[in-house]
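This section describes the prediction task in plain terms. A model, or a person checking by hand, is given the sequence of a single protein chain and must write out its three-dimensional structure as a string of tokens. No templates, partner chains or ligands are provided. The sample shown here is typical of the held-out split.
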Amino acid sequence: MRRFEEKIVKIETFEIQYLQEAKDALKSAFFRKESDEIFNEWEFAERVLRSEGYLPGLCFIAREKDKIIGYNALTMASIGESKGLALGPLGVRQEYQNQGVGSCLVKESIQRARSAGYPWIVLLGGAYYSRFGFESGQPYGITVSDNPFENAHIQILFLDDKVKNEVSGKLIYCDAFYDERGNLL
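The expected answer:
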């Protein structure tokens, strides 16, 4: 629980009855007029639930009173032969952004992943995540595609420093991240 300008925000484990509200929070965070109606962050939250990579204890919501204001998921992933976690989608309703809610969701994800014994967490994102210890995956030879732009945005957080020299190769997300032709969404 954390207090934000007299608001109390709780980070809780996601449960299926929160799905529509979680999707609404993600849509508030990510919707643009050019958004794809099927392949987007808010529909992804539902795809994850049907995925083999879904980890019920590692999917979270942020709540203010009875309103879900944020969502984050950790799912199974691999890099080369190493197994770990992928973070995202992470989203906070627009009116709650820049108040620390996203940071709380990321910190809870890291803490629970560490407690569960996972060696690393990976994501596609920008410099925002460096405040949590994420670093570029490029020095480790981590790729996600043949697209240099996408590869430049791979961020990794090692929860176990002993695996740093063992993690290299192509990042493979769980099946929810790919369309029916195997293309990364």
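For orientation: The chain has four helices and eleven strands.
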